[in-house]
Specification:
With about 110 residues, the protein is an alpha+beta fold. It is built from three helices and four strands. This is Signal recognition particle 14 kDa protein.
């Protein structure tokens, strides 16, 4: 998995989305991240230190490509702005789902 900075993550995410638009899909996950890369210690050992502030780990995956970035608390508004622009520009292929009325609801009113 490749750890990128925030702006490069969005650029690579756009490339992944363009490649996946034709014949596949991609997933994007958000996770709270405390900065610890070590596993939780066993009983009797000192616990891992608690972070002062938590961060957000964003991961994207498509086929064999995996990218990730860590968003700090002060960078969240800028990153969410870039992410919303990405979503608005790339999610244009969604089809509107037609609601089907059931016969019971149609006879009531």
């Amino acid at each position: 998995m490749v750890l990128l900075d925030n702006s490069n993550f969005i650029l690579r995410l756009e490339k992944i989305a363009n490649a996946a638009k034709k014949d596949s899909s991609f997933t994007l996950t958000f996770k709270r991240y405390d900065g610890n890369d070590k596993p939780v210690p066993r009983a009797g050992r000192p616990p891992l230190p608690k972070p002062e502030t938590y961060m957000c780990l964003m991961r994207a995956q498509s086929k064999s490509q995996k990218i990730s970035t860590v968003v700090r608390q002060e960078d969240v508004p800028a990153m969410m702005g870039m992410y919303s622009q990405f979503m608005k520009s790339k999610m244009d292929g969604l089809k509107r789902v037609k609601k089907v009325k059931s016969k019971a609801k149609a006879t009531k009113g």
